Amino acid sequence: MAAVASMMRTDMRYCQIHGQAKMPGAGSQMVGRAFTTALLLTANVAQAEAAVLDGIRTLESGDVSDEKLSVAAMMAAIAPRNDGVWQGNGFEDASSILPPELAPVLKLPLNLRKCFVLRVLMSTPRERCAGLLHLDVNELDQNICLAAQALALIVKVTGRKLSAPTKGKGPRCSEPESNPLPAHAN
């Protein structure tokens, strides 16, 4: 219920910002995808909503597409904030909103989650992803491998299965270590 209310507020805010009576065409689905991306990155409903609204504000009025809104929301979700929206955890609300196959992603440490969501789930090119996260490409690759290993462990423990990404190729991972989450990844 919180997700529906949050997405409705986001849809209404989109209309206010762009001076429209209702969302254009598949706009509600577009906002929903951007919201899901932001939710995976932030693991917090309020943060995801704020990121989508910030993304909407950055777009030109007539120049809105699914991809542009998702990228704008993603950029807002990974940017540091100082407006108080980031207070509180919200993890339980976030995990209940997502499809069950994506909920385990929220259990990843923030640095690994950002790498995994941007590079694997959003298919962001390797160099661009590394630049956005202020990492070198080798560190990005290592974090993605650690994220994949950690997700395998999470899935094993929780019994939830992840869906395979449908587009893009992720980096190759080495064999898992005995402890997939080293101390610096937590």
Task: Walk me through the structure.
The chain has 186 residues and is an all-alpha fold. The chain has two domains: 2-78; 99-185, Arc Repressor Mutant, subunit A (Orthogonal Bundle). It has helices at 2-18, 27-42, 45-58, 66-78, 91-97, 110-121, 126-132, 137-158. The longest helix has 22 residues, at 137-158. Mean pLDDT is 74; it is low at 1-8, 14-25 and 165-186.
Number of strands: 0
Q: Please report the distance between the alpha carbons of the first and last residues.
A: 31 Å
Count up the domains.
2
Name of the CATH architecture of the largest domain: Orthogonal Bundle
Short recap of the structure:
This protein is mainly alpha-helical and 186 residues long.
Name the descriptors:
about 60% helix; mainly alpha; about 190 residues; disordered C terminus; globular; 2 domains; Arc Repressor Mutant, subunit A
List the helices and strands and how they pair.
Blueprint (H helix, E strand, L loop, with lengths): L1 H17 L8 H16 L2 H14 L7 H13 L12 H7 L12 H12 L4 H7 L4 H22 L28
Helix pairs in contact: 1-3, 2-3, 2-4, 2-6, 3-4, 6-8
